[in-house]
């Protein structure tokens, strides 16, 4: 492995690296450095935890000459506000010995303050596409000096529906620029995107996605249903000694809230939840508390957790079994980082067994099955999705049991099919129907 010395990086960056305690570049850093320095477009396939942020920041900062000019020269696009904050923080650590100016741009906060920050002059802008686009069209940001654009976590960005903003932003950038992209997975969507905007990119790929990580022990429990999974989880989490810092993945925000309510009753302030319907402050606070180990358990959806730099996770619990095997890889990759040992536990139902098999096929590895503990109560209670649908005798199109296709439907489509019984449950829980909230959620999502 090369050393940082071999990369011939500047004194200022060397000092910062020494401060951070990094001994040698990670594989993605070693391999991206010369590609990015050469000025060609680059596609990096690397997951969070591989050191990919510094993989693009090192050569960018190495190349960035001191300047007093107002307009930004580097643009870094990331999918979530949390990531903006994280990347800004990393750049600040690196820029400690040089006078790098960096501004973070993200939605959900005062736009005028961000306009003022940009107007003061900046070298680097780190932004989510939605808010950045708002600032560009209001002419608060000038793009003419942009020399390099980094699009990080492109797969997540496209999943979140940012294609429109992303395309618009790229079309407004100067033609003569370097494009750098990082994605954890190579999907058709990502491929189309590369073809549209990149010129003869060099691909740098580390660890073929789907390779099980050596320092993660993987176990699986076959469990009856959602509430029984919750009972099992409660038992596991009582072992505070081993389950020191636990990330619990759920498939969507509805499950996140449901599970959080159950765990909250039992574990109180030891548990927090993040998903896209929580306010930004709440999310930031939850992540901070989890990082500083004020909370031991964090319940999260895939999109919220991806890209977050969470250290020393002892356990990743897959409360559901992801339909896309690669999402399982992303989830478990949040533990066992930086040479630490980690444990991943998968809770799967009969219906999820096929998804589990697909994961094992991808990894070419059989997850060790553990016996379901006798002391855990098997719940007969079913969630709405688990319940057989009510059959209207005169309606031939009704199906008797909610099959897999039903589960695959998008949240908003599900709502349309949910008859009286769902509304009654929600009404009971919240005292009034919640349909309005969901409409607003969709609006917010578009605006991001
Ligand atoms: P990332 O994949 O960019 O989210 O980085 C994951 C973590 O690895 C971050 O906490 C970095 O501080 C850390 N890191 C990055 N580069 C190195 C390195 N060369 N040696 C040790 N740790 C690193």
From TrEMBL:
Residues 424-434 have a biased composition (Basic residues). Gene3D superfamilies: P-loop containing nucleotide triphosphate hydrolases (3.40.50.300). InterPro entries: DEAD/DEAH_box_helicase_dom, DEAD/DEAH_RhlB, DEAD_box_RNA_helicase, Helicase_ATP-bd, Helicase_C-like, P-loop_NTPase, RNA_helicase_DEAD_Q_motif. One of its GO terms (cellular component) is cytosol. A motif (Q motif) lies at residues 2-30. Transmembrane segments: none annotated. It holds the Pfam family Helicase_C. Residues 33-204 form the Helicase ATP-binding domain. One of its GO terms (molecular function) is hydrolase activity. Keywords: ATP-binding, Helicase, Hydrolase, Nucleotide-binding. It comes from the Bacteria. Residues 406-417 have a biased composition (Basic and acidic residues). Residues 395-448 are annotated as: Disordered. Residues 2-30 form the DEAD-box RNA helicase Q domain. The keyword Protease does not apply. Residues 231-378 form the Helicase C-terminal domain. Belongs to the DEAD box helicase family. This is DEAD/DEAH box helicase.
């Amino acid at each position: 492995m090369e050393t940082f010395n071999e990369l011939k990086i500047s004194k200022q960056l060397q000092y910062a690296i020494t401060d951070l305690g990094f001994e040698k570049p990670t594989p993605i850093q070693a391999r991206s450095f010369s590609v990015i320095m050469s000025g060609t477009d680059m596609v990096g396939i690397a997951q969070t935890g591989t050191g990919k942020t510094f993989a693009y920041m090192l050569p960018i900062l190495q190349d960035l000459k001191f300047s007093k000019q107002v307009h930004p020269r580097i643009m870094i696009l990331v999918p979530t506000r949390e990531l903006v904050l994280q990347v800004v923080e990393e750049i600040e650590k690196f820029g400690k010995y040089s006078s790098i100016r960096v501004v973070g741009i993200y939605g959900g906060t005062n736009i005028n303050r961000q306009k003022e920050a940009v107007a003061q002059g900046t070298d680097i802008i780190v932004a989510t596409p939605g808010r950045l686009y708002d600032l560009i069209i209001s002419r608060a940001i000038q793009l003419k000096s942009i020399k390099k654009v980094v699009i990080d976590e492109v797969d997540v960005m496209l999943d979140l529906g940012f294609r429109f903003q992303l395309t618009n932003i790229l079309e407004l950038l100067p033609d003569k620029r370097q494009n750098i992209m990082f994605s954890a997975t190579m999907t058709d969507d990502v491929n189309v995107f590369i073809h549209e905007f990149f010129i003869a990119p060099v691909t740098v790929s580390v660890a073929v996605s789907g390779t099980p990580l050596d320092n993660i022990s993987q176990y699986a429990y076959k469990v009856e249903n959602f509430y029984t999974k919750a009972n099992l989880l409660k038992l596991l989490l009582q072992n505070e000694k081993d389950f020191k810092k636990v990330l619990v993945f759920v498939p969507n925000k509805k499950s996140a809230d449901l599970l959080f309510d159950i765990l909250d009753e039992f574990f109180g302030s030891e548990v927090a939840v993040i998903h896209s319907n929580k306010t930004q402050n709440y999310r930031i606070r939850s992540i901070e508390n989890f990082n500083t180990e004020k909370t031991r358990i964090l319940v999260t959806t895939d999109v919220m957790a991806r890209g977050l730099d969470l250290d020393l996770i002892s356990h990743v619990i897959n409360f559901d079994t992801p339909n896309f095997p690669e999402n399982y890889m992303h989830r478990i990759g949040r533990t066992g980082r930086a040479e630490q040992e980690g444990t991943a536990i998968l809770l799967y139902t009969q219906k999820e067994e096929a998804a589990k098999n697909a994961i094992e096929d991808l990894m070419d590895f059989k997850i060790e099955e553990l016996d379901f503990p006798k002391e855990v109560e098997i719940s007969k209670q079913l969630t709405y999705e688990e319940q057989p649908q009510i059959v209207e005798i005169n309606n031939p199109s009704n199906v008797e049991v909610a099959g897999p296709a039903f589960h695959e439907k998008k949240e908003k489509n599900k709502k349309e099919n949910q008859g009286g019984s769902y509304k009654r449950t929600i009404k009971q829980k919240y005292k009034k129907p919640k349909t309005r909230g969901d409409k607003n959620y969709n609006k917010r999502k578009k605006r991001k």
